[in-house]
């Protein structure tokens, strides 16, 4: 009896110091995971959260702000990014009561027991603006962000950042990186957004896919982009930007820096970047296979979770919070085969390929 008690206490004591060692000694893993649910064969939310915990994943991004999932995440040590749907933006932008209601229902009900840390307003709202409604949503984005921020601030909450993920089709040019610029037609939308993000010290979230740039380049020009360069494989291939003189060893850094330069051209030199989505498909069209997906994602994890931070050539040493796309294959998505094969977990919870999600921690 005594022995058992002693053992129990000793274990408690040890685990206490273990926890301290972990929290003191190591900068938290900055890799997050996108948890999309457009599949009819996916594990339940409860099982999915268990799987995230088993893999020691410390950040998850949701494409909504689902009550069940936020409840399941309560009491875990997983940081959460939630999303305001595009069709909620205009209402929130014009009506503080709707903003208050959204914040109450999706944040206050769960916070702080659920570690909500990012609110992403909309999804790629500057992409494919084809109808007057799309344009209205794009114009309402910053007003909606401001209203949500107001409500959160009034509640005294200071550790939730607000942003919006944009796709790389916002770019007019990305190459060379120093020539990066936004499309002229969205500059008038971009300026107030950058002003807000800079002023609130939030992040400029981008959905950024070297896979897509690489595969486009293969279609248009067989020799355009080296696969190793796109896969973040440490090789000897480098590219020197003729204007900045900066030396690039991978495509992701080039793409990220093109956004840095585009922001600078509008007068915003200091806005921090975050990657809302990146990844590599493991099945489907050209270059989509398990080997490449494992290579890209493992190299990405190593780069983005390195201590001290690696950053990019234009911003050495700067932390870039990163969310990998995606937890699961989503079989209800349209488009080319690759669209349904970005996941790294099978529906039974096993890994599609070896992923060292916690390496570098
Ligand atoms: C998760 O963390 C625990 C405790 O640090 C460790 O024992 C376990 O191996 C980790 N699991 C993975 C998949 O890294
Ligand atoms: C920069 O991009 C513009 C198009 O936006 C292009 O005309 C110009 O040639 C590019 N500059 C360089 C150095 O590539
Ligand atoms: C961005 O924010 C910084 C820090 O608050 C400020 O000094 C700077 O003037 C801002 N930049 C612009 C272009 O507003
Ligand atoms: C393809 O790209 C390479 C390297 O950028 C270039 O030298 C070559 O002329 C391009 N070929 C075609 C057919 O555009
Ligand atoms: C890269 O390294 C390999 C092997 O070391 C060598 O054969 C190749 O010529 C190098 N390529 C470049 C572009 O330096
Ligand atoms: C994952 O990490 C282990 C141990 O550090 C290493 O042996 C293995 O090669 C890594 N796998 C990949 C795919 O990087």
Helices and strands, in order, run as HEHEHEHHEHEEEEHEHHEEHEHE
What structural class do the secondary elements suggest?
alpha/beta
Q: Count of DSSP helices?
A: 11
User: So, the CATH homologous superfamily?
Assistant: Glycosidases
The residue fraction in helices comes out at 25-40%
Radius of gyration: 21 Å
How much of the polypeptide forms β-strand, as a percent range?
A: 5-15%
Q: Sum up the overall morphology in one term.
A: globular
Q: What name does the CATH topology carry? A: TIM Barrel
Mean of residue pLDDT? 91
CATH class: Alpha Beta
Hetero compounds: 2-acetamido-2-deoxy-beta-D-glucopyranose
List the uncertain runs.
1-28
Gap from first CA to last CA: 38 Å
- Number of strand elements: 13
Task: Briefly say what this structure is.
The chain has about 350 residues and is an alpha/beta fold.
How does this model look, in words?
The chain is α/β, with parallel strands linked by helices. It has a single domain, classed as Alpha-Beta Barrel (TIM Barrel). It has 11 helices and 13 strands. The protein has helices at 2-25, 45-54, 67-72, 86-94, 96-108, 132-154, 187-200, 210-220, 227-230, 251-265, 290-304; strands spanning 31-35, 59-62, 79-84, 115-121, 161-163, 165-167, 171-173, 181-182, 203-207, 239-240, 247-248, 272-278, 322-324. It has a 9-stranded parallel sheet. A two-stranded antiparallel sheet has the order 7-8. Helix 4 (86-94) packs across helix 5 and helix 4 crosses helix 6 (132-154). The longest helix has 24 residues, at 2-25. The relative contact order is 0.13. Bound molecules: 2-acetamido-2-deoxy-beta-D-glucopyranose (6 copies). One 2-acetamido-2-deoxy-beta-D-glucopyranose (NAG) binds next to loops.
